[in-house]
Amino acid sequence: MDQQGLDGRIAIVTGGGAGIGAASAMALAQAGATVVINHRPRDSSREAAEKQVAAIAEQGGSAVAMPADVSDEAQIETLFAQTIERFGKLDILVNNAGIEKPADFDQMTLADWNAVMDVNLTGQFLCARAAVRHFKTRKPDNGDVRAVGNIVFISSVHEVIPWAFQTNYAASKGGVMLLMKSLAQEVAPYKIRVNSIAPGAIRTKINKEAWDSKEKLAELVKLIPYGRIGEPEDVGRAVRWLASDDSDYVTGTTLFVDGGMTLYPGFRGAG
Ligand code: BGC
Asked: How do 92-95 and 62-67 pair as beta strands?
């Protein structure tokens, strides 16, 4: 039996049209879940999400696209209500949507600060709250064997690695770390599991500048002991595991998927 079988499970992946979100949606669908691919309510994001829905369908999987700005309370309420109305329940939330707005600290505008906090931290709060409200109405349906609901936050190595010129981003991810752990502690007795994945440098649009030339990629790889940039699928497989019953005894944990980026690579043979 495929232990990571997610047949019959319903998942929402925020920001699921591209990058890590798209790979997570694909990995969950390949394991049998029906995936709601949430996207920003604008044309280019909708098109990307619909493309991913089609890619999943091509592989025999099941997915739909649904718009909502994760930082908008009313839109998130609607996203979750529509999902539960359409599919009867929700089992998995992958809290993925995230943005970067780098700036020198003294030049950072309040708008840049707020935009990152609104999506990366408040957005994760709003989605997790909507999921927990639903999960708390559910009873364990398989004896004591598995969770009634599962939340996977997509954090970052920057929940622990300070990041100059991205103080807003690092602060948001540091916030995600204790949001995740505090929530995990609070809802474990309800058999709700809550974990994070902290990706390192993954080849997506958000950090294209860091890998789109040979020279830049070589610089980046110096920070990665494992010697390669990560691919969205590296994270997708980890999401699938954390969302599955295989990881049933895991809660309140951050799983670093970073090729060793958090291992202080500068200390190898030094210090
Ligand atoms: C950021 C990327 C960055 C990576 C490693 C991620 O959280 O979104 O832009 O390359 O961390 O620094």
From this structure: unpaired
Number of domains in the chain: 1
Dist. CA 140 → ligand 1 center (Å): 37
- What is the residue with the minimal CA distance to atom 5 of ligand 1? 201
Which domain range does residue 249 map to? Answer: 10-258
Q: Which atom of ligand 1 is nearest to the CA of 161?
A: 12
DSSP H or E stretch at residue 92: strand 92-95
Q: Is residue 99 part of a domain?
A: yes
In angstroms, the CA 43 to CA 38 distance is 13
What three-state secondary structure class fits 39?
strand
Asked if the structure places residue 269 within a domain, the reply is: no
Site to probe by mutation for ligand 1, drawn from 202, 226, 228, 256 as the one with most ligand atoms within 8 Å of Cβ, is 202
**Ligand 1 pocket, CB under 6 A:** 100, 156-158, 200-201, 206-207, 210
Q: What tokens does 92 get?
A: 């998995």
pLDDT recorded at residue 270: 95
| Predicted confidence (pLDDT) per residue in 78-107, tens digit | 999 999 999 999 999 999 999 999 999 999
Tokens coding 86: 């359409």
Segment 151-167, tens digit of pLDDT: 999 999 999 999 999 99
CATH assignment of the domain containing 187: 3.40.50.720
The answer to the question of residue 29 being in a domain is yes
Point out the residues that are catalytic: 169
Which tens digit of pLDDT belongs to each residue from 15-44? 999 999 999 999 999 999 999 999 999 999
pLDDT band, very low/low/confident/very high, at 144 (cuts 50, 70, 90): low
